[in-house]
């Protein structure tokens, strides 16, 4: 599961941080911000639609190959094919269409992979396991950024390498014999945020944290180039990702295990949200290379705790065992919808307030709102 998550994350996160901004800038330098914004918005909308549908179909799959593995394999092939095509694109429309296909593939894979945690892991171990499943996300940023900046620097070769890496890393999951559908599954319960207040509050918290993260990182490469005036923005992004990943590695597993032992989830989510908000404030007021490095380290510390514990918390407030992939696919809207909202929010804030300070302060406030939203959850301490 960790390896498959690493492959999925490399495929979807590396282009957002490095390849897509550079590719779009090369095609149309004058409109790079606008084009990056609407392309990521369209892809996010595709993700919102695809993830719950693929998850519901995965829940209903009763093949000899399992119910999660067929979707991991199929979505992996779709994603890898789209990545290979993306590397050969030299038009904005072509980039938009193929990036939407990549997002469709990775989100179908996400629904199947995340459902495997509650499928196979008891509640008392989900914090620790969620940490190990979440660790590949920041690690993917380091691996992917290193590969496309130091190993393969050409556009087509970089995308193709990521596609091949994705296919290789999902193979161990495809060989996992534990993926078996229940012999007599119960009927799936309707998904209702309104009728499940705990899930609604958890959904709102995740949406806020992911919105803060999306607003804060979408234009990071441009921020480093235009505000910090770093001489090598792609390399600077890689350094920040390394610092961020170091923070995640230091905190994620420890927080997940500590949360399992104490039986508490909310205090970890609140604390991590506050740290993420602090990182955004540092970015907003610092506007220098040292402050950017400090913010990256803080973000890693906070997000490492959040990744481990929030994922475990969500699995404990799902309404039905028979519809886990569907429900997690719907909850994933809290991950993907901010990607659609962030470009509009970020563009408006940058235009209205005349710079990045207001943007990052807004992201910090949104993170604090996320901390407040998790407190009313009752079923989980």
Overview of the molecule:
Helix content is 79%, strand content 0%. The protein has 381 residues and is mostly helical. It has a single domain (2-175, 194-373), classed as Growth Hormone, Chain: A (Up-down Bundle).
Structurally, how many domains make up the residues?
1
Number of helices: 16
User: What spatial form do the alpha-carbon principal axes imply?
Assistant: globular
Average pLDDT, to the nearest integer?
85
CA radius of gyration is 20 Å
- CATH superfamily, by name, is MFS general substrate transporter like domains
Q: Helicity level, as a percent range?
A: over 70%
GO molecular function, one term: transmembrane transporter activity
Subcellular location: Cell membrane
Pfam family, one: MFS_1
Protein name: MFS transporter
Topology:
Layout: H1 2-27, H2 32-60, H3 69-86, H4 92-120, H5 126-134, H6 136-151, H7 155-169, H8 171-174, H9 197-217, H10 220-226, H11 233-262, H12 266-286, H13 289-316, H14 324-331, H15 333-353, H16 356-373
Helix pairs in contact: 1-2, 1-4, 1-6, 1-7, 2-4, 2-14, 2-15, 3-4, 3-7, 4-14, 5-11, 5-13, 6-7, 6-11, 9-12, 9-15, 9-16, 10-11, 11-13, 12-13, 12-16, 15-16
Keywords:
16 helices, 79% helix, single chain
Compose a concise summary of this entry:
The chain is mainly α and 381 residues long. It has helices spanning 2-27, 32-60, 69-86, 92-120, 126-134, 136-151, 155-169, 171-174, 197-217, 220-226, 233-262, 266-286, 289-316, 324-331, 333-353, 356-373.
